[in-house]
Amino acid sequence: MGLKNVTAAAAIALSAGVGGAMAQQETLKVGFIYVGPVGDYGWSYEHDKGRLAIEAALGEKVETTFVESVPEGPDAERVLTQMARAGTDLIFSTSFGYMDQVIKVARQFPDVKFEHATGYKRADNVATYSGRFYEGRHVIGLIAGHMTETNTIGYIASFPIPEVIRGINAAYLAAKSVNPDVEFKIVWVSTWFDPAKEADAANALIEQGADVIMQHTDSPAAMTIAEEQGILAFGQASDMLEFGPNARLSSIIDNWGPYYVARAQAVLDGTWESMDTWGGIDSAMTEIGGFSEKIPFAVRKEAMDAAVAIASGRLHAFTGPINRQDGTPWLAPGETASDGDLLGMNFYVEGLEGSIPN
Amino acid sequence: MDLSALDPVALIASLLVAATPLILAATGELVAEKAGVLNLGVEGMMILGAIAGFAVAVESGSPALGFLAAAFAGAALSLIFGLLTQMLLSNQVATGLALTLFGLGLAALIGQPYSGIKPPSTPQLDLPGLSDLPVLGPLLFGHDAMLYLALALVAGSWWFLSRTRAGLILRAVGESHDAAHALGYPVVAIRLGAIAFGGACAGLGGAYLSLIRVPQWTEGMTAGAGWIALAIVVFASWKPWRVLLGAWLFGGVTILQLNLQALGLDIGSAWLSMTPYLVTILVLVLISADRTRVALNAPASLGRVFRASG
Questions:
Q1: How far is residue B161 from each of residues B27, B167, B241, B310, measured CA to CA in Å?
Q2: A75 CB contacts (<8 Å, ≥6 apart)?
Q3: What is the DSSP letter of A37?
Q4: Burial B225-235 (b: 16+ CB within 10 A, else e)
Q5: Rounded distance, CA A145 to CA A182, Å?
Q6: Are A173 and A136 a contacting pair, CB within 8 Å?
Q7: Phi first, then psi: what are they for A234, rounded to 5°?
Q8: Residue from B200, B234, B173 nearest B37 by CA
Q9: Across the interface, do A187 and B116 touch by the CB < 8 Å criterion?
Q10: What is the ipTM of this complex?
Q11: CB–CB of B216 and A39 under 8 A?
Q12: What are A112-165's pLDDT values in tens digits?
C-alpha cells in the first residue's frame, strides 16, 4: 500500500517534470505514420526521406517521430490519438485509408495540425496534399507503349481508389497514343505492401504475355521479378534501380521533402493553414527518374519533351477527345480534365478491358 | 476471355512455390503445438529467418548455407521464447506476440545493408530425363530442393508423431504434461526441443520467401504469412497431411485469383482476394461441426503453463 503510493507520487512528479521541460523548450514535434515499413524502398521509404529532410533543414528546431506499418482503418485512429496525446504539433498521415481516422482525431485535438496524403477531406486543422503522379504515369506510359514487343503491358494495382484508377487511365492513354495495338492487363492485389503477392501478380502477368510491368504497390518485388524474367518495369514511388539494373526503364519518384520542410516551417512561423496541395512535375513533387540506356534516343526525347510540356502547362495528361469505357463521351476534343473530375475518377477510359472492383 | 490461355502446369508449379513457406512454418508450429506449446511468434521467426538466410546466402554465395543459417536463426529466436515460457513460466500468448514484434524489429535492423542486393539463385533440381518429361517434368521434377524438403518434412513429421515412440512421448507431453512428468519424462526439455524445431522450420519458410519466391530483402516482407501458417495448423486439426492440404488450398486460391485477373476474367477482384480466407473459414466450420472430434484433436495441454510438482 505504502509502496504503491510512493510509486504513484513518483510517477506524477516525473510526468510533471517532463511536462515542465516540454513547455520550456520550443522544439516543434512532428510525427509521421506510414502504411508500410520505412524499408519498403517504395512509398513509405520516400515519406521517411521527407521526414529526414525536415530534420536536416530545421535541425534543433524540430523533433520528429514515426510509426511504421500502421494498417489503414481503426488501428490508425489509435496511433494518431497516441501521437496527438504525446504532444506532437504536426502529424503527417501518409496513406489514403487513414482519411476518416484523421478527420475524427483532428476534431478531438483542435490544437494539433494534421496533414493527410492523397485524401480529399479537410478541416480547419487538417490539410491535404498529394503528387500529380498521373503526370508521371503519362511519361512512363509513352515509354511503355514504345518498348513493349508483345503489345501487352501488365499493371499491378492495389485498391480501386481514384488515385490508382487515374494512374491506370493516364498510362493507358499515353501508351495507346504511340502504340494503337497496346493492351493493358490489370491485376488488383488488394494490398499496398505484400512482396510475395506482388511477385506472384508479376509472374501471372508475365505468364499472360506482359513484357512491361507497371505497378501501383509499394515494394520492389515486381521489379525483382522483372529483372529475373528478363522483362521491363518502372520504379514506383522510389527509383528502384538497384532492384532491376537491367529491367528498370525509368521511374516515378515521390519527392516529399520540400513540401514537408515548408509545412513544418509554416507551423514554426505561425502561418500554417489548412489547404490542399497537388504538386506535379512542375513543383518537383512528382519526379521522373533517369532513363535507361535501353530506351532508344528518339523515345527518350519524346518522353522528356512530354515531361517538360506537362511542367510548363502546355500539355495535360487528360486531353480530349476521351470516352469512358462504355463509349460515352467524357472530354470533348481539346478539352482538359478538371481537377474535380480527376480527384473523383471512378471509371476506366475507352479501350481498357475488365471492370473496376467495387 | 479464353481459359485455354491459362497453362495448368505453370499454374500448379507456382501454386507449389507459393505454398512452400506456409508448409514449412505450419509443420514446425504443428509439432510445437503437439508438444503443448502455443507459439504465436511464427511471423517473427519467419522474418528473422528471411533476413538471416538472405544475409548469409549473399555473403557466402551459397543458398544452402543461407537456409542453414535461417534454420539456426529461427531456432535461436524460438529458444528465447522457450526460455521465457518454459523456464520462467511466462504467458505463452503474450510472449509469442512479443516474439513477433521483436523478430520484425531485429530483422529490420540486420537487414539495413541488404536492400537492393540480388541473392545467389537457388538451383532447380534437374534430373536428366525426368525433368524433360512433357507435363510431369515441370510439375514434379522441375523445382528447387527446398520444395521437396518441405514435403519430406510433412511426411517425416507424420511418421515421427504417429509411428515412433519419441513422437508418442511428445504427444503425451502435449496432452497431459502432469502425467508425462509423473512417468518421468523431461517435459521442459521435450518442449524446448519442439519449440526449437518449430523455430527452425519457420526460419526456413522465411528464407524461402527471401531467397526463392520473391527473391529480395524488404522489411516486413512476410506480410502476415506467419499468421496464416498458424491458422493452417488449426485448419489441419493438428494433422500433418492436412497442413499440406491447407497450404495448397490457400496458396492455390491466391495464385488462381491473380492468374484469372491477368487473364481478364471479369469477376470482382475483391471477391477473388477474399476467396482464400472465405474457403479457409468454410473448411474450419465444416471441420469443427463435430465438436468432440475437434476437442480430441487439439492437444489438451496446449498453451498451459507447466509447473513441475513432486
A1: 12, 4, 12, 28
A2: none
A3: -
A4: bbbbbbbbbbb
A5: 7
A6: no
A7: -125, 140
A8: B173
A9: no
A10: 0.83
A11: no
A12: 999 999 988 999 999 999 999 999 999 999 999 999 999 999 999 999 999 999
Chain B CB contacts of A154 under 8 Å are 262
Smallest CA–CA distance from A189 into chain B, residue:
B273
Over the range A270-302, which residues count as b (16 or more CB within 10 Å of their CB) and which as e? eebeeeebbbbbeeebbbbbebbeebeeebbeb
Alpha-carbon Rg for chain B, nearest whole angstrom, is: 20
Length of chain B: 310
Q: Which of A36, A190, A204 sits opposite B273 (nearest CB)?
A: A190
Question: Is B215 in contact with B60 (CB distance < 8 Å)?
Answer: no
For residue B98, give the C-alpha cell. 512479443
**What are the φ/ψ torsions at residue B284 (nearest 5 degrees)?**
-60, -40
Listed as own residue / partner, the contacts of B271-280 with beta carbons closer than 8 Å and 24 or more positions apart are B273/A188, B273/A189, B273/A190, B276/B249, B276/B250, B279/B249, B279/B250, B279/B253, B280/B231, B280/B235, B280/B246, B280/B249, B280/B250
Rounded Cα gap, residues A102 and A274, in angstroms: 13
Q: What is the DSSP string of A134-174?
A: HHHHHHHHHHHHHH-SSSEEEEEE---SHHHHHHHHHHHHH
| Amino acid in position B282 | L
pLDDT in tens, A56-94: 999 999 999 999 989 998 889 999 999 999 999 999 999
